[in-house]
Amino acid sequence: MSMVATQLRGVIAAVATPFDDADGIDEKALRGQLDRILENGAHGLMPVGGTGEFPHLSRAEKRTVIEIAARAAGGKVPTIAGTSACSTKEALELTRDAREAGADAAILVPPYYFRLTDDAIYRFYQAIAEAKILPIVVYNNPLYTGNDMNPDLIVRLCRVPGIIGIKQSNVDLGALVEIIRHVGDTASICTGIDSQFLSALVVGAKGIFSTAAAVIPREMVQVYDYAQAGRIDQARELHLKLQVLNRFLEYDPGYVAPAKEALTMLGLPHGTPRHPMPPLTETERAGLRDALQALGLFSRAGMTASR
């Protein structure tokens, strides 16, 4: 699949990376998560992103996870692999790895740690795109990278050949609207914030890169389907219902531990985040369990919330 902007749409699940008791990749658990995501209608997979703990994975582990995801997708939906790195050189290497592992596109945050000018960020993405290794999705996540991309910069990037879309994880919904206003259909603009999903669709976003879709893929796809069919009242009702869980999958206490804990509670053991990222506290775990219970997920899985 040579991916183009029109294929970047719908619910793209941000895949969690499960670890076994020896702190290695739990490939069986990963395949189980992927099968569940795909069986429930997700429109794409994003392995080795933030939800997949990319900073904590070795280069070989990243390739393994991408290979498993691409194999599960089987060309039926796109695999957009995370290839973020601090340097252009490493980002190019990881993007080549992703292509060889079967990915259809690559998604990258701007280089982090060092503060960069807009022109430096532009040249970074330009270099990755001009290498023509894979189609590129630009990922703006200023809280985690320290390098925010303003709407003007993102609009410039959308004009670079080889860049097919944007994942906008800035909490400023107005910035998303401004990007959509200027970009139109030149590139696919998606949100990366679960609680903004319906709002983003209403103003013209094409979809979402969603941590929630690793846990509740069916429900996230249903919100999208309602919106596409113009059934906004039903989409809003479901979106608000899902907020009881989505609020755990944003910025406090961070989205990785809640996503992995939720999957474990639902019968798909995923271990804990890699050190030094902390697991949930008992209070947070109880709140998450209550959210899953409120959505009826335990009864659907034939389980109880006793854990």
Spatial order of strands in the largest sheet: 2-1-8-7-6-5-4-3
Low-pLDDT windows of residues: none
Q: Which structural class matches the secondary elements?
A: alpha/beta
Strand fraction? 5-15%
Class in CATH? Alpha Beta
Rounded to the nearest angstrom, the distance between the terminal CA atoms is 42 Å
Instruction: Report the principal-axis shape.
Output: globular
Number of helices, where a helix is a run of at least 4 consecutive DSSP H or I residues: 14
Mean pLDDT: 94
- What is the domain tally? 1
Q: What is the string of SSEs from the N terminus onward?
A: EHEHEHEHEHHEHEHEHHHHHH
CATH-assigned homologous superfamily: Aldolase class I
- CATH topology (fold) name: TIM Barrel
CATH-defined architecture: Alpha-Beta Barrel
Give the C-alpha Rg.
Answer: 18 Å
Helix content: 40-55%
User: How is the biggest beta sheet arranged?
Assistant: 8 strands, parallel
Count of strand segments: 8
